[in-house]
Amino acid sequence: MNFDRIYFYLAGIFQVLTYDDLSQHKSATQAPIYTGVSVPLYEASNALDRNPTTCMRTENIGPNSPDKIVWWKVDLGRIYRIYSVNILFKLYPGYEIRQRGRFAGFSLHVSTNDGSLQSSSLCYKDGPELPPLNFTAVCIQSGRYVTFYNERLDGVRYPEGYEFVNAFTELCEVVVEGCTKPGVYGNSCETPCPIHCKNNDCNIKNGTCYECDPGWKGTTCQITCGKGWYGENCSQPCEGSCRDNATCNHVTGQCDDGCEAGWTGSFCEKECANETFGFECTNNCSGNCLNDSPCNKRTGHCDRGCNPGYADTDCSRECSSGYFGTGCREKCSSHCINNTACNHVSGICPNGCGNGYMGTQCNSTCKGGFYGNNCSLPCSPNCKETCHHTDGLCSCKAGWIGSFCNKECLPGHFGVACRESCSGNCVNNTTCYHINGVCLSGCQNGYIGHQCNQSCKEGYYGRNCSRVCPPNCKTCRNTDGLCTCMEGWMGYDCSYGRCSIGSEYGLKHLLLIKRILSISSVKKKIIKPCQTHSIG
After folding, report:
1. Quick one: how many helices (H) and strands (E) in the chain?
2. Phi, psi for residue 232 in degrees, rounded to 5
3. Where in the chain are the domains?
4. How far apart are the C-alpha atoms of 9 and 41, rounded to whole Å?
5. What does the DSSP 8-state code read for residue 118?
6. Of 454, 422, 455, 456, whose CA–CA distance to 439 is shortest?
7. For residue 515, what pLDDT band results from cuts at 50, 70 and 90?
8. CA–CA gap between residue 225 and residue 214 (Å, rounded)
9. At what angle do helices 504-516 and 520-527 cross, to 10 degrees?
10. Alpha-carbon dihedral of residues 282, 288, 289, 293, nearest 10 degrees?
11. Which residues contact 249 (CB under 8 A, 6 or more apart)?
12. CA dist 161 → 9, 87, 132, 167 (Å)
């Protein structure tokens, strides 16, 4: 064996080996296992001892062997970022072409789990040209298991130079190069991966990111998502309503400065619940929007208007005192008791109505014949028409006076406002009826008429003027029939003939008259007819 040549090849390996050696002294397995002499000299681990003079060997494969495939596998112990795999195949002096033919057609596979070919990814596949015995394949992958695989299958036509008979696999050294530290790249394994590479994982050679953290893009993940996008591969559109029309956070999709008024949720994608509005939905609606409609989630305004009794854009203000109803356009009645304001919603007077008014809004006057509180007091029956609805005052019927027409005229008076006087001729000097002046018990002698204000007609006297004056009376008094006799007649009733001087009859008659009547004026009248006569 030419150790100088081997050292040359090994030196060639170390001359380019600047990454970390991930496979040295790691665990290795192989198949088919070599069954010839000196078996311990050909164990699978020989390829990892960094001694190029000790090699692994398997049984041969090919047409004259029961085995058709061969594999060798190293377990790196954990997942690493791999840069390359370097293989030093056994060199026998003078048999380099044969050895390259045995080596030809191999493939390299990398796996992160169990190392089976089915779960592995192809790292390198040899082509028709014979490979050099000192071979390096750049294999930038992440993995724990690296598998060398070759085959010589029956019925397959292989390229020229491939060895078919006694195709032994002899790997003297397998060096898996990469970085032991995660999150670094470069041939010194000292340069940190760009900070936004997903899982802090980047291309071990040039530092480009395989994937970016959410919210980043570009080969080195240094570019934020475009406006309106976020998340994995910047593939998710911003959904919410961020404050001041800001775009969402390019990483999380959330609104860093909060939500626009009227929106809430982690992504500002939810409208405020009914009855709330504004930034972060912390404000409560007035609750007075028309027909219980929700207020504007952004402004709190009642876009459809206010319930009766409320005003302003957000319907938070009650109608001003004295107004009520929809839009506060209706004016309260001025007749609420004690001038209290009506209810701002319904216009109802909460404490009732002032005197003379009725109805829930106190806008109706009392019905005819009633007045006062709740229109509960009846007007005086002596009112000429109806009384005033507030205080019961009225114009009086004839015979009545006073503010409420509840006082009769004073005795001796009657009629409207008691302005008329009784006749004074009622029987027994009784007063007349205060309403119409009628003498209810009748008239004194000598008077007739309802009010006893008419004297008897000439020729009549006495009660109800029912008596006729004597025929010889010139005139008789209406009350008692006392006569003024015609000439030639004398006596109380002028029933005596003409007087003569010295007449006995005349003297007797005169004496009788004196005894009956004591009034001198009467005596004079009685004797007057005879005064022209002398009595002697």
Report:
1. 4, 35
2. -55, 125
3. 3-179, 331-395, 480-530
4. 21
5. G
6. 422
7. low
8. 9
9. 160
10. 80
11. 215, 230, 255, 256
12. 22, 20, 13, 12
Burial 341-369 (b: 16+ CB within 10 A, else e): ebbbbebbbeebbbbbbbeebbbbbbeeb
Closest CA to 245 of 263, 224, 261, 260: 260
Residue 7 has pLDDT above 80, yes or no: no
What beta strand segments (E) does 129-266 contain? 134-151, 171-179, 184-185, 191-192, 216-217, 223-224, 229-230, 236-237, 263-264
As a whole number of angstroms, the distance between CA 195 and CA 200 comes to 7
Q: The tokens of 52 are what?
A: 């190029």
What pLDDT digit, counting tens, does each position of 62-111 carry?
A: 999 999 999 999 999 999 999 999 999 999 999 999 999 999 999 999 99
Give the predicted TM-score (pTM) of the model.
0.55
Burial class (CB in 10 A: 0-12, 13-18, 19+), 54: middle
pLDDT digits 0-9 by tens, 12-68: 444 444 899 999 999 999 999 998 776 678 999 999 999 999 999 999 999 999 999
> Which H/E stretch holds residue 423?
none
Distance, CA of 351 to CA of 366 (rounded, Å): 17
CATH assignment of 3-179?
2.60.120.260
